[in-house]
Amino acid sequence: MTEIAEPRVVSPNALTVRTSAAAPERVRAKVAERLISFFSPLLLLGLWELLVRVELLDARFFPAPSRVLVAFWQLLISGQLLGHVGISLLRSGIGFVLGGVPALIIGLSMGLFPMVRAAIWPMIGALYPIPKIAILPLVMLIFGLGESSKWVIIAVGVFFPILINTMAGVINIDPIYLDVGRNFGASRINRYLTIALPGALPLIITGVRLAWGVALLLIVAAEFVASKSGLGYLIWQSWQTFAVDQMYVGIITISGLGYLSFVLLDELGKILVPWKPGTVS
């Protein structure tokens, strides 16, 4: 007959020893990941510099990182770069508020009330796939070449990601919470503020992250046309004058702003939604 082995009983002390032994391994792995994340971009920049120095890359189109850094410093100390950054962020912020606040309200309403969702969703489905940059000429025709057209195109771009994520967040709320609010006689405004908004917050923050990325994309495109300031104007003007190093400064600055804003939004998500730390990562 086959003998049946008795199950082994692991004592709590043995588990504690194993956990303690695994802790340094996790710490070393975490440190290694951070070192790789830090040094890999530096390695890429070093390789880029080397390829330009040995003339395997055409410096006219791919200036060496050292040359781009000099141009960055010159634009920074002259105040031009900070001025362009400030103007682009101001335009993006205004457009973001103009598009984000209505999107939040409508998204909450669509999530709470099926009839509202049934009425609006077909229009969202028809308009959302249209590339927002494709309607920039129409926006400029209606609102002119000033600041209003830039605000409007950003508002249109950020509207859809926030609305769709807000609606999805409300729909995914456990119905029992809505039933409890209804049974206790919660007013409509209370259902918005105390049930729908907190319950949908993880997906709302995700929508805000997506929308802010769209805002940065659209502001650069909008500043290409009929603008005398902003990062988009800096990139376009540098291209026209073949100041390629300054063009790279504008591109890298946009990239840095995007990365920094995503890090800040991740930290904001951890503060606002501490029970779901992985929703925005």
Notes on the protein architecture:
There is one protein chain. By secondary structure, the chain is mostly helical. It contains ten helices and no strands. It has helices at residues 12-53, 65-78, 80-112, 114-127, 136-143, 147-171, 175-183, 188-224, 231-240, 244-272. Helix 3 crosses helix 9 (231-240), helix 5 (136-143) crosses helix 6 (147-171) and helix 7 crosses helix 8. The longest helix has 42 residues, at 12-53. It is flat and about 75 Å long. The mean pLDDT is 83.
Properties at a glance:
281 residues, mainly alpha, 10 helices, flat
Mean pLDDT: 83
* Unreliable residue stretches: none
Order of helices and strands: HHHHHHHHHH
Computed over alpha carbons, the radius of gyration is 26 Å
Q: Beta-strand level of the residues, as a percent range?
A: under 5%
| Number of E-state strands | 0
The residue fraction in helices comes out at over 70%
Structural class: mainly alpha
Largest sheet, strands/sense/barrel = none
From the spread of the alpha carbons, the general shape counts as flat
Number of DSSP helical runs: 10
Distance between the termini: 55 Å
List the helices and strands and how they pair.
Blueprint: H1 12-53, H2 65-78, H3 80-112, H4 114-127, H5 136-143, H6 147-171, H7 175-183, H8 188-224, H9 231-240, H10 244-272
Helix pairs in contact: 2-10, 3-4, 3-6, 3-8, 3-9, 5-6, 6-8, 7-8, 8-9, 8-10, 9-10
